[in-house]
Input
Amino acid sequence: MASIHDVPPDAFNYVWDNSIEPALEIESGETVQLYVRDASDEQIHKGSGVEDVAKLDFSHVNPVSGPVFVKGAKPGDVLEVELLAFEAKDWGWTAIIPGFGLLADEFPDPWLRISEVDAAAGIVRFGDKVTLPHRPFPGTLGVAMPEPGEHSIVPPSRFGGNMDVKHLRTGVRLFLPVGVEGALFSLGDTHAAQGDGEVCGTAIETAMDVILRLTVRRDFAIDAPQFHLPAGAEVEDARTSFHVCTGVGPDLMECSRNAVRATIAHLGDRYGLEREEAYAVASVAADLRIHEVVDAPNWVVGAFIPEAIFEGGR
Amino acid sequence: MASIHDVPPDAFNYVWDNSIEPALEIESGETVQLYVRDASDEQIHKGSGVEDVAKLDFSHVNPVSGPVFVKGAKPGDVLEVELLAFEAKDWGWTAIIPGFGLLADEFPDPWLRISEVDAAAGIVRFGDKVTLPHRPFPGTLGVAMPEPGEHSIVPPSRFGGNMDVKHLRTGVRLFLPVGVEGALFSLGDTHAAQGDGEVCGTAIETAMDVILRLTVRRDFAIDAPQFHLPAGAEVEDARTSFHVCTGVGPDLMECSRNAVRATIAHLGDRYGLEREEAYAVASVAADLRIHEVVDAPNWVVGAFIPEAIFEGGR
Output
């Protein structure tokens, strides 16, 4: 059995840049362990208050572990990332960061929630009123872009990066287009739970150890990330009842905003959540879906609130 | 036990207009049966060929049964629509209609597929290669807008209408804001199966008898449609494996288009589907989800292809 190759814990970066020296070089098909720092790069800690959000230094956020050079990977190939295991820490943070998030204009003040992550029980305790299923995944997985120089770590691209796809859990295979020789794979921004959309801009942010297998594929070609979910991967999170708030209109972004605004109002009316907490709950638990995108000029986006996260909910 | 009130089969309309005379008047909480014509208004039949798509008369499409006047409903109230039962016909149609659909520019020619709907077996036979789960729902459910005059039946609005929300199945409760006295509820565009997005513009289009209960609610207020899914409603469709193609970029509409373009390419490569059939399969089976809408300037949309619809798929 092949050994697991470690990416050294001190090998992390704050930008995409294909001139960064590899932290590790492996053969295609080998297994790698990464020790991933949280998205605040340890600026927020277990005892933090809202003042630590207010003074966040954005020159070092979203550190990504790596890069890993995969021998033989060439531009035009596909890098398969098989997600094998996540080892969670016992806490995570969720913040509303001024200027960031889907409703940034409506939430100008910093806000912070420290949650307890109980991996053994399979739950995340998010305040008194909300218990989330523990669903660890990396928010950022990507390969270096062919364009030279430094590129912001914040936006994703067709080479992956900060995609925040909550479905990239154990057993899932992610496919990334290779942009440069060796692929130069990096990973960061690990989350203990998140809704599709990550609407307030943060999830249950937590450091995590990650084990995965990297394999070069040449039997198909892709222009942007694709992934494969094994049978049953989505079942557990489908068992709950859902309340769904829709947004209807001519712009998918504004539809999404209206669906989230309605979600915040609903969570306030129904469960007594403050506006900030409701926005954060939408971010860590509610899923955005596009129901209709053809009946011009108006589209429909729905925000799915899983009711099992509330006490007495199913 | 209260009887079921029939909307007469000949009571249907091609526009929203709050001056249309009610076809039926009921008390809040009563049950209604509607005999819904297919979205082509019988212009497409079981023996149709593509020439019937080419000559579609758009002055009578998407007929909606109704309107139903619900006594006591006032502007500002909520109309609860509890979906009780659907009686499917034994066939349905799916078309690519020139000028309509998410990729209209790339699919200029009409295309048609007649599917066999086998409600007893719980399936829809969509050609030789694809078998869909039978998931009947109405694409159009709405109440009259307060603005006078005729309004197109095609786009949905905050009063509902042609929302094409595939989740509105038996056991689900839909909530609509009431815009005029009596609400004036209508329903049409019944589908035997559809993906979130309805990307080619049509689903498995089929006539259907629908039974539902209409109740005036005043214990909460809403600005746009909301709905409630009972526990377990989403489980069956979550059991399959999924292949997911993403679109990444600064516009959610273009992200959606790219995710669907990649889906069409994948379905061609993997299953040998022609481009038109692949586009139609994306429309009747693939779900669009918004994974990330905060990591400016790029967002991520995923198109989920359920692999159990293919022979040998799980």
